[in-house]
Amino acid sequence: MNRARLLIFNAALGPLDYRVPDGMQVEPGSVVVAPLGPRQIVGIVWEEDRLPTQSVPDAKLRPLLAVLPVPPLKAELRRLLEWTADYYCASLASVARMVLSSGGALRGPATTIEYRLSGGMPERLTPQRLAAIDALDGEQATIRELSGMAGVSEGVLRGLVNQGVLEPVEVDCDRPYPPVDPAFAEPELSPDQRDVADRFVGAVKQCQFAPFLLDGVTGSGKTETYFEAIAQNLRHGHQTLVLLPEIALTEAFLRRFEDRFGAPPIVWHSSLKSTERRRAWRAIAAGTAQVVVGARSALFLPYAKLGLVVVDEAHEVSFKQDDGVRYNARDVAVMRARFENIPVILASATPALESLQMAQTGIYEKLVLPARFGGAELPSIDTINLIEEKPDRGRWLSPRLVEALKDRLEKGEQSLLFLNRRGYAPLTLCRHCGFRFQCPNCSAWLVEHRLSRRLACHHCGHETVPPDACPECGEPDCLVACGPGVERIAHEVEEILPEARLAIVTSDTLNSPEKAAQFIAQAEAGEIDVIVGTQLVTKGFHFPELTLVGVVDADLGLEGGDLRAAERTYQQVAQVAGRAGRGAKPGEVFIQTRHPEASVIAALAAGDRDAFYEAETEARRHAGAPPFGRWAAIIVSSEDEAEAREAANRIGATRPNFDDVMILGPAPAPLSMLRGRYRYRLLLNARRSAEVQQVIRDWLGALSFPQGVRVAVDIDPYSF
Ligand code: ADP
Ligand code: ZN
């Protein structure tokens, strides 16, 4: 008899065996529908010997119901999923779910019905109907999406359909994408760029695993060189995946890509509309999607013939996913390339120490672009000691930085102020009784957002309107803002330079592709004099008229004391500095700090990258930190504080004894409460060679916990 073992998306129940009915064709990787109790579930057929479970006698097996009309997941992808689950101590089910994340993409016909406004008005205009009409605003969406967008029930929308206010449009999910052309507009490369590009092209031609670290200063034209690799890959008829750290960067990338290749690539990220998501998924699986640019989740899509992976801004922290499956997309990208046996390019001006180490030990091939394209100089960098050059009372910009801003405004050049803090002020308190506004769900202060008039938690999204009186002592008009956020810096610039045209650039203000595109267009057209922004402005942007960069508080990132604080500060400041002087005019950078002597700041001011990396390497070696040793975290959480503590203590009490693994804790996690859950943490520090994952699996596998307790494992954690 023919049996099939299914990976199903409920790790607690699966895997499960089924009977394959006569005449049904399945193979490992087939996506199938199976009965489970009274329900139908989707599962992936897997090799039995790779997915052990208790065997069920033949007579008890239920038959599979159907094979879904999508290509079976390839062995290369199945091996990647297994590796990811294994390495990050996650269930294979939760990793595999990311492949089919488009859910509905698999079932039903290849068309979707969306709705658009017909132009007619409803018989009676209720607030809900108005909300639906407003939300659609010239676009089209499915009923379910529109219900979410407008915050109204599907019933209200059906009413509008019946009245003819919304009209159906049939959307073909298999309509082709415009083809991209490798020869559309080939650039003249500089000799340095040519060398790098030739190396990439050679690797793509060889079509085997080849990891590259493209280490090029900001503005050196790294993109241009990996575009040549993409062109070669297109000529082979293979697919390319480009991972970008931030959706806000995608706009600029799309335009450049289209200039070079004559058509845009296919975009993949979590906020795609379901129809577009479905269309992309199907084209990727069918092999017709030529180039996909996406956020980290694009890594787990079922490419039919992947030939090249590029990770741009590969040092970025946002490649690390911090909930669900806690994976690092940069590292999984390299593994994907290894299983697919294809080249992978990690591009950065400030590579992670781990990546540099991989290059040093010869595992990655390092290619260097030492100079900016077109002869632009790297900017000059100067520190401003805030203890000596004090800003005015209640201000955050020192006199020298203010002078430089004025000077740029007079010359008609652009300036950029960087502060990695959204909102107006990170803390609000009552000047009468000292009451501080705290998030009810997290151990964090509420951040004042003055533009949108709210107090918000940056961890869970909780929001309230600032009250007129203190909720504690009742004193009216007593709230004071403590510390600066970007809105407050923008406010200060307004006061100093009332005529300057300002843009605040954060994930709050650039929260859609349209807004990102609009900002870029305005900045390029010279309609903005001063940009004030968070880490979002440190990357990717290329504004030739931008000649001044001010880092408002370089010490901010160093305070937390976490493992990567120094490296992250170095990367952020070097990246934001790299926005200055990219055109014909030279750039100038001021770093405001209270610790000009700190090794990170000194290295930045001296433009001595090697000095920073050497100091950082020594510090990491000394601490047994990556890349010399390994870290892992076990995070125990529950809505009940005692329950979380007890579970953490029990894990602590059963700790295994190993020479090469040191176990610290349990202790309250740095965010001891998050989204209403109390959190405790254990930290493992291990030698490079230790089998940390095996240790953790054996250890936790022997324990069981109450329902409300969650135990998460974070391998190679970023922040703790
Ligand atoms: P990086 O990503 O290394 O910071 P970019 O790829 O953004 O640098 O390149 C910086 C600028 O130089 C961009 O505007 C890009 O279009 C331009 N540029 C780079 N290489 C070339 C080239 N070979 N021909 C024309 N323009 C180039
Ligand atoms: Zn919160």
From TrEMBL:
Zn(2+) 2 binds at residues 439, 442, 457, 460. Its cofactor is Zn(2+). It catalyses: ATP + H2O = ADP + phosphate + H(+); Couples ATP hydrolysis with the unwinding of duplex DNA by translocating in the 3'-5' direction. Residues 203-369 form the Helicase ATP-binding domain. Binds 2 zinc ions per subunit. PROSITE patterns: HELICASE_ATP_BIND_1. Transmembrane segments: none annotated. Its EC number is 5.6.2.4. It is an enzyme of class 5 (isomerase). Zn(2+) 1 binds at residues 430, 433, 470, 473. Keywords: ATP-binding, DNA replication, DNA-binding, Helicase, Hydrolase, Isomerase, Metal-binding, Nucleotide-binding, Primosome, Zinc. HAMAP family: PriA. Belongs to the helicase family. PriA subfamily. This is Replication restart protein PriA. It comes from Croceibacterium selenioxidans. The lineage of its organism: Bacteria, Pseudomonadati, Pseudomonadota, Alphaproteobacteria, Sphingomonadales.
